[in-house]
Design a protein that fits this description.
The chain is an alpha+beta fold and about 280 residues long. The longest helix is centred in the first third of the chain and has 21 residues.
Length: about 280
């Protein structure tokens, strides 16, 4: 069979014709879509939702393959399943959708995160670690909710409004046992404690260890619904834990807690111009 040498030239011509149809508006359109997809991936990574996304992609791949191979029964079954799946998506991804809409409403979906400067961040982290270390040594139960991008006004409204500058002595006084503020959560915004004695939603995750008490389940429950970081001190064992994105890290010491807290108060800038650089760093 003779080799058709005209195919590479035809492909080259088609490619040049395709490029000639792309204008500045098309480039802008592609860039905006890429930015939105990147931010969606950034919000879903390290959460339970990313596993569901992978499952949906697997189902879509199987549907395409079965349609190509003309497996009619499997194709019909997958089409019905995918239709029902898209109906259930708003329910399954309710925390993530809420987070995305709140970011969009606050104008932070594509913007940079407002953070403290280095000295303020270092001071707040020092005071927090100092207070948590004393609470853990005395086995005093505590819940510290550190606000990030999403405002937690609905959570702080359930407690007592304070609005005080964060110091270790101040936090220790808030969590004195047998006082009205001891059993609730303290909400921190920047370098100020804005409320204490707040109520948090409990997680519905039934696979958690039975060792986790109400404080830990409340911390996980709130972390499933927002981007806050929650520090927990166990009243029974004095163990220090941190809940984030529906997960909990336990048995932290002062140094590991400091390493977790520092990026929260002084995070790297993540505006549109830094997306490519951040993506390359993660890879």
């Amino acid at each position: 069979m003779p080799l058709d040498l005209s195919l590479p030239f035809e492909f080259h011509g088609m490619f040049r014709g395709l490029l000639s149809t792309i204008g500045p508006i098309d480039v802008l359109d592609i860039f905006v879509v890429a930015a939105i997809l990147y931010k969606a991936y950034e919000m879903l990574q390290d959460t339970r939702a990313i596993t569901l996304v992978k499952g949906i992609l697997v189902l879509l791949a199987i549907a395409v393959i079965s349609s190509f191979l003309q497996l009619h029964a499997i194709s019909w079954l997958l089409q019905k399943a995918i239709t029902l799946l898209f109906v259930a998506l708003p329910i399954v991804f309710q925390p993530e959708l809420r987070r995305a809409l709140e970011h969009l409403g606050q104008g932070k979906f594509l913007g940079a995160v407002v953070s403290l400067d280095d000295d303020e961040a270092r001071s707040v982290v020092h005071e927090l670690v100092k207070a948590v270390r004393v609470l853990a040594a005395n086995k005093t139960g505590a819940l510290l909710v550190i606000e990030r991008n999403m405002r937690l006004n609905d959570v702080s409204a359930t407690g007592i409004q304070i609005d005080g500058l964060i110091t270790a002595d101040f936090l220790l006084n808030v969590f004195i046992p047998n006082t009205p503020l001891h059993d609730g959560a303290a909400v921190i915004r920047g370098k100020r404690l804005i409320a204490a004695g707040c109520l948090l939603p409990l997680t519905e995750n039934r696979s958690l260890s039975t060792e986790l008490g109400t404080r830990h389940r409340a911390a996980i429950g709130l972390s499933e619904q927002c981007d806050a970081l929650i520090v927990v001190v166990s009243e029974e064992t004095g163990t220090i834990s941190v809940a984030e994105n529906g997960r909990i890290m336990r048995h932290l010491n002062a140094d590991s807690l400091r390493n977790v807290l520092r990026p929260v108060f002084n995070p790297p800038q993540a505006g549109i111009r830094d997306m490519v650089k951040n993506w390359r760093r993660k890879e």
